[in-house]
Amino acid sequence: MIAPRRTHRTGRTGWLRAAVLGANDGILSTASLVLGVAAAHGTHQSVLVAGVSGLLAGAMAMASGEFVSVHSQADIEAADLALERVHLEDHDAELEELAKIYAGRGLTPALAAEVAGQLMAHDALGTHARDELGITEELKARPGQAAIASAISFSGGALLPLLASILAPLPELIPSVAVASLLFLALLGALAAHSGGAPVLRSALRVCFWGAAAMATTAIAGTLFGTYA
Questions:
Q1: Is the whole-model pTM more than 0.85?
Q2: Which residues contact 7 (CB under 8 A, 6 or more apart)?
């Protein structure tokens, strides 16, 4: 019996990275901010104001940061493609270069030259972009997509600890937000691992470990500030 074919997940790399990073930062930064203010003996209102402010500022920061960084990658790709168009004016040299690439991957020199010739006749720039530069349609930089995914995912992640801080009474706010945020982080890590085909438990534990460390650090800082302020 032939096993069913599985879809490769490489095409998800761009948006999945931005979405996971945004949601993780949304949960962690908002939860840490809320816990820090609560540990400093802030009122319930000040805790909520800090959480909402963190959500809005964080979403904009994530979107702008992703756009700028991914746009830099897109600029580099565009510059490489422009340079490759110039190189393609020397058809024979580029044909030889492409044939060497294929020969290095295991084809015989004669077959490598034939394949290179046919592919260049079909789409010279696309062939060199893929096989020489490593630029493909599936993996190319998309600044807008990354920015939108980061802003939405950050906001969605930040809403979770913010909702917990709204529902929890002030005396129980710190343990409620901490436990809820760790559960959210574990779920996020598991979903991201499943989407990317990675080990689920290991990813969830890794996210929870660093999340607990960050929240504990902020809570300790808030406690010290509240004690000595």
A1: no
A2: none
